[in-house]
Amino acid sequence: MEFIDEDLQHYAEDHTSAESELLHKINRQTHLNVMKPRMLSGHLQGRLLSMFSHMIRPKQILEVGTYTGYSALCLAEGLQEDGTLHTIDINEELEDIVRGYIAEAGLTESVKYYLGNALEIIPAIDATFDLVFIDADKYNYANYYDLVIDRVRSGGYIIADNVLWSGKVLEKYRKKLDEDTAALLEFNKKVQDDPRVENILLPVRDGLMVARKR
């Protein structure tokens, strides 16, 4: 996931607005107590997600993959006053932690937290989305995209995380083509070839695909 010199990474973080006390707490507690803490968006990417959300000023956000709630709280920073963030995760073990952070952020009325299979939950959400953030099982990225593309308003955005997959989208950085890498290669090509969107792949952290619906 490290694509630039470590010192340059620290320099970028040092010249990026600080995360809030609550986000810092989530960051630290996730690294101390939760498996696979690298799944957390973290300071730099979190501030980028917040910046996107402030620019878009969404009324309806969909997040696929809540984890410990860090990215959800970042995305919620740009919500319109009467907006809603829908966030879906399959890991029931993290429910109490996530609900606690949502409450601590004062967002219990703005954030709807769903537990279960996102492929089943997404069609049941009655909303047109201004912003979608996909950060869940890589195998289903293309399926999530297909489910949401017609639910995103014209001018709305889809952002997908981990699309460079620690560089393994390039053959020289992998020993073999595993299932997740193959799924991400398919997803990246799907977005690139989709005439309904204009897109940019940002080499930030583990890669962010940003697609704007025409």
Automatic annotation (TrEMBL):
<dbReference type="InterPro" id="IPR029063">
    <property type="entry name" value="SAM-dependent_MTases_sf"/>
</dbReference>
<keyword id="KW-0489">Methyltransferase</keyword>
<keyword id="KW-0949">S-adenosyl-L-methionine</keyword>
<dbReference type="Pfam" id="PF01596">
    <property type="entry name" value="Methyltransf_3"/>
</dbReference>
<dbReference type="InterPro" id="IPR002935">
    <property type="entry name" value="SAM_O-MeTrfase"/>
</dbReference>
<keyword id="KW-0808">Transferase</keyword>
<dbReference type="InterPro" id="IPR050362">
    <property type="entry name" value="Cation-dep_OMT"/>
</dbReference>
<protein>
    <submittedName>
        <fullName>O-methyltransferase</fullName>
    </submittedName>
</protein>
